[in-house]
Specification:
With 94 residues, the chain is mainly alpha-helical. It has a domain at 7-69. It is built from 2 helices and no strands. It has helices at residues 7-28, 37-69. Helix 1 runs antiparallel to helix 2 (37-69). Keywords: Membrane, Transmembrane, Transmembrane helix. The chain crosses the membrane at residues 7-29, 41-63.
């Protein structure tokens, strides 16, 4: 039994972090007056999202490999149901 990470949340989180980094770079640092800040943000956002998705995917892969190492084996057996007469009657309350 092992708990494997779900990849989509890691990819989405990486993309959102890429957008945040793009915003910090665009609006936190002084820029050139010849370029519109919206255009600069769009350029860095595309690069940030792509890089963030790659980093998020890599993090999910690393955690998946760690979960394989920590996995344990379990044996599951089918247990036949007993007769209904062995169970106490639900309607018989004293």
């Amino acid at each position: 039994m092992r708990r494997a990470p779900r990849y989509v949340p890691f990819l989405i989180l990486g993309g959102l972090l890429g957008i945040a980094v793009a915003a910090i770079i665009t609006f936190g640092l002084p820029g050139d007056a010849t370029y519109d800040r919206g255009s600069v943000f769009g350029f860095f956002m595309v690069m940030g999202v792509a890089g963030g998705v790659v980093v998020g995917g890599a993090a999910a892969l690393v955690l998946d490999r760690l979960s394989v190492r920590r996995s344990s084996h379990a044996v599951v057996e089918s247990v036949p149901e007993d007769d209904a007469g062995d169970l106490p009657d639900a309607g018989d309350r004293s």
